[in-house]
Amino acid sequence: TSADGKDVKLENATAGALDSLGLTSGTTKAKLVADTSISVNGVEVKFSKGSDMSDIAEAINSSSTGVTASVNAETGTLEFRADEDITIADGSNGTGLAALGLAASTTKAVTQETSVSSLSILDSASAQQAIQALDGAMQQVDSQRASLGAVQNRFDSTVSNLNSISENSTAARSRVQDA
């Protein structure tokens, strides 16, 4: 597709011209012409020569970046989703951003209120949002459980200390009375 989202049709192009674009006869998707990589939230994600947008999204999703990538079916563009800020930079070879048509940047996270009752799984995009919403909810529950567990541990320790103090005080009182 072109920059404005229109389909591009190649006719009468030589194999050499198509090859330099990473395309073959009958191909409608652009592909990477060389191995490259980018850094997403500090994690290097590598892409192989011949990767298309779907392959790139899959590579990002299989890395532990905290970012979910998908390809917009209508525009063919790569979309990123995350619960926190997304930082994108060049990978180790320094050509990944240019190869993908991206610029180094940090995108601030935007909170999207989602309830379980409003989730839909009718198409892949909404199913992905449902997974992200449920994942976010589980992370919040885990965080709250961890906080409550830490508080409970402190209370248990305090109760043990108070029991020990009480026992020691009782023993001391008994010795004083015996003397």
UniProtKB/TrEMBL annotation:
GO terms for molecular function: structural molecule activity. GO terms for cellular component: bacterial-type flagellum; extracellular region. Residues 131-179 form the Flagellin C-terminal domain. The keyword Flavoprotein does not apply. InterPro entries: Flagellin, Flagellin_C, Flagellin_hook_IN_motif. It holds the Pfam family Flagellin_IN. The keyword Phosphoprotein does not apply. Keywords: Bacterial flagellum, Cell projection, Cilium, Flagellum. It comes from the Bacteria. It is found in: Bacterial flagellum; Secreted. PANTHER family: FLAGELLIN. Belongs to the bacterial flagellin family. This is Flagellin. It comes from Pseudomonas putida.
